[in-house]
Design brief:
Layout (H helix, E strand, L loop, with lengths): L1 H15 L1 H32 L3 H7 L8 H12 L8 H26 L10 H18 L1 H11 L1 H6 L9 H16 L4 H29 L6 H31 L14 H12 L8 H10 L1 H9 L3 H4 L5
Helix pairs in contact: 1-2, 2-4, 2-5, 2-13, 2-14, 5-6, 5-7, 6-10, 10-11, 11-12, 11-13
Length: about 325
């Protein structure tokens, strides 16, 4: 009897606050996926910094490029297994801010601009535009957490190089960056970060929906996990191709050494970082960390499936990557 009452309470809660329940489900799925795949993110960030021409000129030391597996096992061997999760706390902060504001902006776009009913679907183009705008805005707001995450991910490398650690922890990192660079210092690298989010959200929706429609129209497969995994694999490939160059630029801007006022010593802007990277390392330097980035996108399929299958979120058409 009590179990039935509890179930009714849960149902009533979801019915009374559907947007809250959707947010909680989406956030929870994103956080679980973030924790599970975070070693790939750490590996990706380390790969993006390897062989950095501007940094090598600054220190007059060349850093060899080791590849994904060598980098991952190198972190375990040289720093310890748990260092594969260094920076996970600001990553979780980022997921909470990113997911929440992305939903708010998307609902405003849907209800306030397009005046669509909650029970109708957008066209593919309308959904892609909504995802691009909501993802870009949410990424801008979550940039401080991304900045701290990237810098903490590189702390283990600094220790191996004999350098002093920059931060004692997550909150010390936030406070130190704020003290040295002011509020603007927390938004270092926001331009390529926002560009990446916009491209990833747009590419994810367009590719996933296109692959899903193609498979349903040309094969005997029904809408389910197999189609979703295939769509996620393809969309992960496309979003990694679109977003990796901006991600490399973002990570390098965020990790560069700064003066006492928090001003970067290697790059003047994202364009300057782009030019120096291509001139010093070649065009393919913009795709360093591509493989772990793609694998991480594909590994997020469970959180995407849970979010897209939940009550409300499927109707909202919100991208989940």
């Amino acid at each position: 009897m009590s179990g039935q009452v509890d179930e009714e309470r849960v149902l009533n809660l979801a019915q009374r606050w559907p947007k809250t329940s959707v947010f909680l489900l989406s956030s929870s799925a994103s956080i679980v996926a973030e924790i599970a795949t975070f070693p790939l993110d750490v590996t990706k960030t380390r790969l993006q910094m390897q062989g950095e021409a501007a940094f090598s000129r600054f220190l007059r030391v060349a850093t060899p490029y080791r590849g994904m597996l060598d980098t991952t096992f190198g972190i375990i061997r040289e720093e310890g297994f748990l260092k594969l999760w260094q920076g996970i706390i600001p990553a979780v902060y980022r997921q909470i801010v990113y997911t929440g504001f992305r939903m708010v902006v998307y609902e405003y776009y849907r209800d306030g601009i397009l005046e669509k009913s909650e029970y109708r679907r957008f066209s593919l183009l309308q959904t892609a535009i909504g995802g691009m705008l909501s993802g870009a805005f949410a990424q801008f707001l979550s940039n401080p957490a991304d900045l701290v995450k990237v810098q903490l991910q590189m702390e283990g490398k600094r220790k191996l190089q004999g350098k002093a650690l920059r931060y004692r922890g997550v909150h010390h990192a936030f406070l130190k960056i704020l003290k040295e660079g002011g509020i603007v210092g927390l938004w270092v690298g926001w331009v390529p970060n926002v560009q990446r989010a916009a491209l990833v959200n747009m590419g994810d929706i367009a590719t996933y929906e296109s692959v899903k429609r193609f498979l349903k129209s040309n094969t005997s497969l029904e809408d389910g996990i197999l189609i979703h995994i295939t769509g996620s694999t393809c969309s992960g490939l496309v979003t990694s191709i679109l977003g990796t160059p901006a991600d490399v630029i973002k990570s390098r801007l965020m990790n560069q050494p700064t003066d006492k006022n928090g001003k970067g010593l290697l790059y003047k802007s994202s364009v300057d970082c782009l030019i120096q990277s291509v001139q010093g390392e070649g065009f393919l330097s913009l795709y360093k960390g591509f493989l772990p980035s793609w694998l991480r996108m594909v590994a997020h399929w469970r959180s995407r499936f849970a979010a897209r299958s939940s009550q409300g979120l499927g109707r909202l058409g919100i991208p989940t990557q």
